[in-house]
Amino acid sequence: MAASSVRCLVKSLISSHRVMVFSKSTCPFCMMAKDVLSEAGVAQPKVLELDHIEDGPQVQDALRELTGISTVPNVFISGKSIGGGTETAKLYESGELQRLLTEAGILKKQEDS
């Protein structure tokens, strides 16, 4: 697939899914990011396992061009990269991930009692 087509695919995936994870199935940081998202209440994020597709290396190149991040996972919420596994875990621990997910309409707002 041409580089421009891969860039279009990546941009389309990011814009059409409120939570998008670019991952590799055997990567421990990718597993951590997916586990943290699940723990935070994201039932089924859209995940693209780059080691399962022919254009995986090109997708990773396109992500580097878009975000400056050349590693996986690369986690997007509402079209914005929040980083990888470690960053996702830190955002969860601080409560910021839940705020981002609530703003994205993934989590329901907690009612103040």
Description:
Keywords: Disulfide bond, Electron transport, Redox-active center, Transport. GO terms for molecular function: glutathione disulfide oxidoreductase activity. Residues 19-82 form the Glutaredoxin domain. This is GLRX2 protein. The protein has 113 residues and is α+β, with helices and mostly antiparallel strands. The chain has helices spanning 3-16, 28-40, 56-67, 85-94, 96-103; strands at 19-23, 46-49, 74-77, 80-83. It has one domain: 3-Layer(aba) Sandwich (Glutaredoxin). It contains 5 helices and 4 strands; from the N terminus they run αβαβαββαα. Helix 2 (28-40) packs parallel to helix 4 (85-94). The radius of gyration is 14 Å and the shape is globular. The mean pLDDT is 93.
Any idea what the CATH superfamily is called? Glutaredoxin
- CATH class, please? Alpha Beta
**In percent, how much strand structure appears in the residues?**
15-25%
Termini separation: 53 Å
Function: Has a glutathione-disulfide oxidoreductase activity in the presence of NADPH and glutathione reductase. Reduces low molecular weight disulfides and proteins.
GO biological process, one term: cellular response to oxidative stress
Keywords: Disulfide bond, Electron transport, Redox-active center, Transport
Domain Glutaredoxin: 19-82
Task: Give me the secondary-structure topology.
Blueprint: H1 3-16, E1 19-23, H2 28-40, E2 46-49, H3 56-67, E3 74-77, E4 80-83, H4 85-94, H5 96-103
Parallel strand pairs: 1-2
Antiparallel strand pairs: 1-3, 3-4
Helix pairs in contact: 1-3, 2-4
